[in-house]
Amino acid sequence: MSSAIRLGADIGGTFTDIALECRGRMFSAKVLTNYAAPEQAILDGIAVVTKDAGITPADLEIVIHGTTLATNALIERRGARTALITTEGFRDVIEMRTENRFEQYDINLRLPTPLIPREDRFPVKGRIDAQGQELQPLDEDALERLADRIAAEGFGAVAIGFIHSYMNPAHERCAREIIAAKVDVPISISSEVSPQMREFERFNTVCANAYVRPQMESYLGRLQTRLKEMGAACPVFMIHSGGGLIGVETAAEFPVRLIESGPAGGAIFAADVARRFGLERVVSYDMGGTTAKICLIEDYQPKTARTFEVARTYRFCKGSGMPISIPVIEMIEIGAGGGSLAWVDAMGRIQTGPESAGSEPGPACYQRGGTRPAITDADLVLGKLDPDNFAGGAIRLSVADAEGAIAREVGGKLNLATEPAAFGIVEVVDENMANAARVHAVENGKNISDNTMIAFGGAAPLHASRLCEKLGIDRCLIPPGAGVGSAIGFLRAPFGYEALTSQVLRLSRFDADKLNALLDGLKATAEGFVRSGSSGAITREITAFMRYVGQGWEIPVTLPDRAFGPADADWLRDAFRQNYARFFGRAIEGLDGLEIEIVTFSVRAQDERPLPEARQITLGTPAEAGGTSRAVFDPTEGAPMPSAIVERDALTPGTRIPGPAVIVERETSTVVTSPFDVVMQDDGTLLLIRKETAA
Q: pLDDT tens digits for 160-185?
């Protein structure tokens, strides 16, 4: 793989990041995202990096792509008009939700509007029970009439979700055949998109998949066509939300799996750095132009989950968004990026985000028509950014426009001078990120200060030192290429896929043959996706999600990759109790008749990748920074401080520069606050380390 010419492309809300790995060297570029034609930014970035590398697009051997387009389509409700066909009596499941109140004491609470309006949801007779047996035959005549109506009314996509179809998909498949015979639009069925129990989550996921599918199919088709026109005839693969690679055809059929693809690349990038330095407890911090993402990584693996929410509509409260029931790398995401807008609320408090200036018009300092202050404007006013050398000089920043926007929207309303108002903006966003990191760690039973931070993304190195101060973290790594970290992460991702299905299996009625057959099917499905892009050795991870009968949620239990026999019922029971005790302090004992059941099975397959070269962290030898300096506002001192300005490329391994300082490079700048020093590692990684740590 080291000799291959591989390219990663990450479309974000503000910038499109390109990373080219060419014969052992890395070339990168950041291009403003083109909302009207997202593929154009990728082509522009490819032109830049291939020129820098001295190659042509025809030399590319593989392109790996991640995008926020599916996410944005859901958030902005810009998908196709979609028809939902569902079981009679379940028409309103996606509107009733689970009846949980995410703000218990808010009497004016409004639930999010369902993705598909009621008039576009069509119930049909036919029923499968919880064991997969047919209770009522499917009304095929009604489906024939419904197909004519869907064709006549010009729907752009169809979602089919029947009750208990994860146990028996026969009705959904039959309905698809009937509709497809008369309607030439993409059709998604829940038993393929998300074959898991809990109808609200499953129905919502298939609706989301159908809703964005025409747009994503069109985009991916245009991208492939234009890449070929450019001369790049290489295969294109997509990174999915679980952190593996899938083919473009699969991505076009199941675009809902791409919703968290960009952040997944960032988590993989951080996990690769953690393994390189032998760091078993890491918190990754990814701050781009629109959002900030925080992920806990243990034993070099990001934690995954089976569901997540997108497009939260109520103060970013859990439960206020659309649940998507697919495998995903678990992280916490807040609206805090370089383009996040600052404003003053009715109580006179500075707030930041979730609204973002994006790339059009962008922060006020971009001079592209933006008039409201963003985080980037505040960073510029505080001296963290060089207005003449932003994005390698590609974008000239206006200090005057940034100061004017901050004074008009924040300083003037609070009777603050421009500099204190700018500090208030960045302090609020840093505190919001610190709180999000604390909450994420507590929810996972971890102490955040025990971790090493790995920061990347265009804006994260500007804020990492201050975030470490707030969280009590002593060490932070800024890897080479941090400004395009997610795109580099795409190049480190394995070909992988996670296949899931819900099949309730009580241990009191344990059937080893049934279990083996079920797992064999999942293994074949997962490995089939992997084989579409890799012929290497495959590793598998098998998980059973188990609970006491009657409980509302399950816990994961890792299973051995082998055939099971009748005696394994006791092994499964003991493994569940051990994991239950680890999660909740003790297992439940002494209740007669309390049964244990497996609810969902998962097989994750991926191809083996070579381990990165191991590195040792060096604490370095103190040295004078030399070079130029400028005044940068230091939060510890509460005033601008003379700060050394050092080119990253000019640092030699082992050099330790005391803060305050700013380490500058093409895609980002690393701000070293006064409590920290910065040490260059032998692989080009920057280590931020507290001054009291011995050299």
A: 999 999 999 999 999 999 999 999 99
Q: CB neighbours of 345 closer than 8 A, spacing ≥ 6?
A: 351
Give pTM, 2 decimals.
0.86
Backbone angles phi, psi at 504, to 5 degrees: -75, 125
Contact 234, 62 (CB under 8 A): yes
- The dihedral through the CA atoms of 498, 79, 179, 248 has a sign that is negative
| Contact yes or no for 309/325 (Cβ under 8 A) | no
Whether the CB-CB separation of 667 and 481 falls below 8 Å is answered with: yes
Angle between helices 399-406 and 418-443 (to 10 degrees): 80
Distance between CA atoms of 19 and 9, rounded to whole angstroms?
7
What tokens were used for 190?
């829940």
Total H helices, total E strands in the chain: 17, 36
User: Is the Cα torsion angle 212, 34, 310, 114 positive or negative in sign?
Assistant: negative
Alpha-carbon gap, residue 415 to 428, rounded angstroms: 17
Q: Which amino acid is at 421?
A: A
**Residue 121 near residue 231 (C-beta atoms within 8 A):** no
Q: How many CA atoms lie within 13 A of 16 on its CB side?
A: 25
| Type and span of the H or E element at 73 | helix 69-76
As given in the structure block, the two tokens for residue 241 are 């939300």
**Residues 458, 384: contact at Cβ < 8 Å?**
no
The one-letter amino acid code at 547 reads R
Distance CA(88)–CA(95), nearest Å, equals: 15
Residue 112: Cβ-neighbour burial (10 angstroms; 0-12, 13-18, 19+): middle
pLDDT tens digits, 137-166: 999 999 999 999 999 999 999 999 999 999
Which helix H or strand E contains 285, and what residues bound it?
strand 281-287
Instruction: Give φ, ψ of 295 to 5 degrees.
Output: -140, 135
Residue 107 tokens read as: 């009497």
List the structure tokens of 194: 């998300």
The two structure tokens encoding residue 161: 């979700």
Structural domains of the chain sorted by starting position, each given as residue range(s) with its CATH number in brackets = 5-74+217-258 (3.30.420.40), 78-209 (3.40.50), 261-335+428-492 (3.30.420.40), 340-426 (no CATH), 496-607 (no CATH), 621-690 (no CATH)
Q: The tokens of 6 are what?
A: 């591989």
